[in-house]
Amino acid sequence: MTPPDHSTNSFMSEFTQLHSIKNQNNSIRSPFSLSSTHLNQYNLISKNFTSPTNIFPLIYEKQVILECLYTKDSIAYGTIRVHNLNYNKNVFVRLTYNEWKTFNNIQAYYLTSYSNNNTDVFIFEINLAKFNNNDDKTKLKRILFAICLQTMGKEFWDNNQQSNYVLDVILKDDRYITK
To answer: Is CATH 2.40.50.140 the right assignment for the domain spanning 8-171?
Structure first.
């Protein structure tokens, strides 16, 4: 899905440009790593996400919303739209691969502002190469995540109406990893 204001090519072009700039200094560090040969066997898939059609009432009510989620191979890219309540803000993705026993935060990066509706857009990347259960590589079946906006001493969450957003980890031949 693409944000209402962007085509897929525009979104990916902007994301790639910003990511290449940020990637050098802000790489995500995680205690989990997949070997490149193991990583090539899996894809990330989001079956249940659909971009909201009329996002502005939701943004003004919730202050933060996952606007777009796009998966390609073992990487998920997303856009987050936030109500511009204050110039100083922190936007991140909180995710887990083990049902919230542990979690990691991935920083989202500012992309653009829309003054006509007082919203900002942030982008993020979830890369499967950053996650792995070192005991058994096949245990990584799905990644749950939620979006957070921190501003003015408050936190606002989008957790898919308390269901979490889900990225399934599947074998490249489209067979789900058995539980």
So the answer is: no
